[in-house]
Design a protein that fits this description.
Layout lengths: L2 E6 L7 H14 L3 E5 L2 H6 L3 E3 L27 H13 L4 E6 L1 H12 L4 E5 L15 H22 L2 E6 L6 H9 L4 E3 L7 H13 L5 E6 L6 H10 L1 H4 L3 E5 L11 H19 L5 E6 L2 E6 H4 L8 H10 L2
Parallel strand pairs: 1-2, 1-4, 4-5, 5-10, 6-8, 6-9, 7-8
Antiparallel strand pairs: 2-3, 10-11
Helix pairs in contact: 1-10, 5-6, 7-8
């Protein structure tokens, strides 16, 4: 290996910078040359990249987002896009690529690998929906930022006897809603994996008030069919009969922008360095993740196009504990 390139792709996730830093410096330590590609696959297609030195990745470990930039690139999903990417990589005599990103990004890694170009993925998305890892870079920060918001809403909710609906990020995966619902002691958790009808939410909140609770928190994942909007419409339409109001807080991209937690920085550092170690062995075509607290490599073919389910037993537990 002589020359590698690194890109960050999909939604930005806190800790991506720590992974870029670790991969860059690990590669430099081996005497390799490193290119940083700007804005994910879009930058690969437009050949927007520059050489990274050790100082270029200094002072970024504590910063959220990604200094390389990220983008969604529909062009890369076409055959012509993959051909253009390969041609750009070969023109620069780049030997291998590290792709730091989530599900879609690792499907892209697989496409390049299948076309004969060595790629190692690094699992990074706040959604934590990747097969091949227990936890992805960014999700710990996203969960903690969301949890802080829930804790604050609970405080004000208790003072005013108000119910709050909190919409969490996570696309079609309910992981953030599940974890923050449990850690925040939510009365109801709604996820795409297990929907709760609006009338049932009303019943559960009403029952909570009757049991003497002074607060009521509903956590709804953004990808749920009966999402925040549907819940609010239902509450407005039946306000008089329900007897209490519901206030909506949509956390949105605030969650992404958090300063990466120690756990995310350490995970990103381990996986970024492990990606370089893997390339040094001459065997690419895998994604680096963490399984049972050990760094693990899973073939991209097993990851592409699949999503990891949440543990629905934890939803049952949360319901018991909300009594
Ligand atoms: P997150 O879920 O955290 O936003 P992600 O990596 O899943 O991260 P996507 O927007 O799904 O984000 O994918 C990022 C980019 O990966 C896309 O813009 C596209 O360029 C590429 N990509 C996605 N799916 C595929 C695919 N099936 N084949 C090739 N490339 C893909």
């Amino acid at each position: 290996m002589q020359r590698i390139a690194i890109l960050t792709s999909g939604g930005d996730a806190p800790g991506m910078n720590a992974a870029v830093r670790a991969a860059t410096r690990s590669a430099l330590a081996r005497g390799w040359e490193v290119y940083g590609i700007h804005n994910g696959y879009a930058g690969l297609l437009s050949d927007t990249m520059n050489v990274l030195h050790a100082r270029d990745v200094g002072g970024i470990i504590q910063r959220g987002g990604t200094v390389l930039g990220s983008a969604r690139s529909p062009e890369f999903q076409q055959d012509a896009g993959v051909d253009q990417a390969l041609s750009n990589l070969r023109a620069r005599r780049i030997d291998a690529l590290i792709v730091i990103g989530g599900n879609g990004s690792q499907s892209g890694s697989h496409r390049l690998q299948q076309a004969g170009f060595p790629v190692v993925g690094v699992s990074s998305t706040i959604d934590n929906d990747l097969v091949g890892t227990d936890v992805t870079i960014g999700v710990d920060t996203a969960v903690n930022v969301t949890l802080e918001a829930i804790d604050r809403l609970r405080t004000t909710g208790s003072s005013h006897q108000r119910a709050f609906l909190v919409e969490t990020m996570g696309r079609n995966c309910g992981y953030i809603a599940l974890m923050t619902g449990i850690a925040g002691g939510a009365e109801v958790i709604v996820t795409p994996e297990r929907e709760v009808e609006p009338h049932e939410v009303v019943e559960r909140l009403g029952a909570a008030y009757r049991r003497g609770k002074t607060h009521a928190i509903v956590v709804v994942a953004e990808g749920a069919k009966h999402g925040a909007r549907a819940m609010m419409d239902h509450f407005k339409a039946h306000r008089a009969a329900i007897g209490f109001g519901l206030r909506l807080t949509t956390l949105g991209h605030v969650v992404r922008g958090g300063v990466p937690t120690a756990a995310d920085r350490v995970l990103a550092t381990r996986l970024g360095a492990a990606a370089v170690d893997r390339l040094a062995t001459g065997t690419a075509g895998v994604m680096m993740g963490l399984i049972a607290n050990a760094v693990a490599a899973t073939p991209l073919a097993e990851i592409a196009g699949r999503t990891k389910p949440i543990d629905c037993d934890l939803l049952d537990l949360a319901r018991v504990l909300a009594q």
